[in-house]
Amino acid sequence: MKKDIQIPEVKDVHVALIYEYNNDFKAKEWNAYILNNKDTPIELVFVVSKGYDGDIKTAPLRHSMAGLEPKSFAKLEFVQDEVLKLNNEFFVTFYLDGVLFEKKFLFKKNTINNTSLTTIPTINKQGILGK
Length: 131
What we know:
Elements: E1 13-22, E2 27-36, E3 42-53, E4 56-57, E5 61-68, E6 72-79, E7 87-96, E8 99-107, E9 118-120, E10 125-129
Antiparallel strand pairs: 1-2, 1-10, 2-6, 3-4, 3-5, 3-7, 7-8, 9-10
């Protein structure tokens, strides 16, 4: 029965942590974004995020949106400095052409730092793409 279930591969949808300046707090901070680099919109987007390392766990945060237009992005959440030392997981599900897609994006503990920054497509800001 399980062998009959086909799970399509997620392409061109990403989670990125962006290191950006916050004008209100006059400081740089990490924010999580979801990116749709596809040429078509995605629908019914759900994201569950959590941090963990052994016995240390954060409460899961849940985000939802009706959809995300092609070549666009949406901010998910602010990432506190305290959780950067944890594994940060973002589980993304969405529909595309009536088919359910899902993927887990992981930022391993202690890898979220200024030395790992690259330019993130679609947003064109400095950050790190989840794997």
